């Protein structure tokens, strides 16, 4: 008998492109994701993904299956959410979308104090905007603005994408090259160092490099870890470089555990937005969440 969770897992792998990304979005272990996928493949009788390094490339049959089940799964998730609301009239349930690292830095510490139920979802920003428009999510924290006329965006903070390093890293040669505006030589120095990256997203590194050196980097990180907060913890214990948003490591920089190496000769900034539906019935709850974010990110 087929298990609905197999299809949820299949959808998560298809949308994230990795087993790790699917595990993070579903709050289950990576072995659990693998088990669900193998069970579904055994049930349907054909292979759904081909491994390409760490990426999971969907087969043609997987594309057909995804098109067949994705809308139905979204409908079921909405029905599940509405059922919760109807059976818990005195305790609203608010679904919030954001990146994993933002949740850990901001809302995680306040979850137990909230006077309503909360569902936190992680995923691609464009997918979250779509789910907000469909009513699956009530609020998202995003650096991207959508185009739907039903959604309002409110800027509340900004982040600067910066180059950071471990406290034990020797950076005097690089700083001298930057002061002399020898950016080609500075780039060569950077490429000789050890780099950290994450499994699913290299956007920060690519955009920072393009802005400051005029092209995308021609190297891959030496150490691939699950998320940006993992990078900060790794840097705190030694050497290495990474490009990350400044608010994720501000406390470590202030304490000297991590060093701010360079903001770039052209700074890369993102505006962060609250996005919610204009006709939301949870305005009071959403304002409380917004207040907590402003408190942490002021």
Describe what this molecule looks like in 3D.
Belongs to the LysR transcriptional regulatory family. Residues 2-59 form the HTH lysR-type domain. This is LysR family transcriptional regulator. With 298 residues, the protein is an alpha/beta fold. Helix content is 46%, strand content 21%. It contains twelve helices and eleven strands. Strands 3, 4, 5, 6, 9, 10 and 11 form a seven-stranded mixed sheet that branches. Strands 1-2 form a two-stranded antiparallel ribbon. Strands 7-8 form a two-stranded parallel sheet. The longest helix is centred in the N-terminal third of the chain and has 28 residues, at 60-87.
Topology:
Elements: H1 4-16, H2 19-26, H3 30-44, E1 49-52, E2 55-58, H4 60-87, E3 93-97, H5 100-105, E4 117-121, H6 125-134, E5 139-142, E6 151-166, H7 172-179, H8 183-191, E7 196-198, H9 203-213, E8 223-225, H10 228-235, E9 241-245, H11 250-255, E10 258-262, E11 268-277, H12 283-296
Parallel strand pairs: 3-4, 3-5, 7-8
Antiparallel strand pairs: 1-2, 5-11, 6-9, 6-10, 6-11
Helix pairs in contact: 1-2, 1-3, 1-4, 2-3, 7-8
Helix run count: 12
Shape, principal axes of CA atoms = globular
Question: Which structural class do you get from the secondary structure elements?
Answer: alpha/beta
Q: What is the percentage of strand-forming residues? A: 15-25%
Low-pLDDT runs of 5+ residues are none
How is the biggest beta sheet arranged?
Answer: 7 strands, mixed
**What level of helicity do the residues show?**
40-55%
User: How would you state the average pLDDT, rounded?
Assistant: 89
Please trace the helix and strand order, writing H or E for each element: HHHEEHEHEHEEHHEHEHEHEEH
Separation, N- and C-terminal Cα atoms:
51 Å
Backbone CA Rg = 21 Å
Query: What's the number of extended β-strand segments?
Result: 11
